[in-house]
Description:
The protein is an alpha+beta fold. Helices cover about 40% and strands about 20% of the residues. Helix 1 crosses helix 3. It comes from Bogoriella caseilytica.
Amino acid sequence: MDIVAYRASHREALLSLSLRTWEPVFAQLESAVPAFVYESFYPAGWRQRQAEDLGALLDGEPDNIHVALVDGEPRGWVCTRLHAEDAMGEVYVLATDPDFHGQGIGRALLQQAESTARAAGMRMIMAETGDDPGHAPARRAYEGTGFQRWPVARYFKDLAGTTARDEPHSLPIPPL
Length: 176
């Protein structure tokens, strides 16, 4: 396996493997979150949203991306963002070809992200993933490479069809 800098010629292979990787994740996510949340994030379906978002990332941040090649073919990738204000690197995207899971590609890409962050003088590296059943493999991968979990709660409320007067504890908003 070789880890190389991203090239535009990798784009379609990376999009394809990412969508195949996340297909089972999104199948489980849909039933694990409230319907209004899923529908708000993915009104045209998860596949379209992911393809658009990942395509924009590959086109817009090529210098932040490294690709794992196996026999010269892209089999995984990582996007590492740097946040100088927090002295923190961020594993923004990590994807490995589902046909190659369990072969150390994700671990190698995480090591690359760590090296990228260290070389830039960052003091820590962070990764964020879901707490739903579909993201369990991602959580195991991060924890297996030494990431420590920071408990965060993210709440959503459906506002469709409600007004402020429908809320039992609504308070007037003071003027600025």
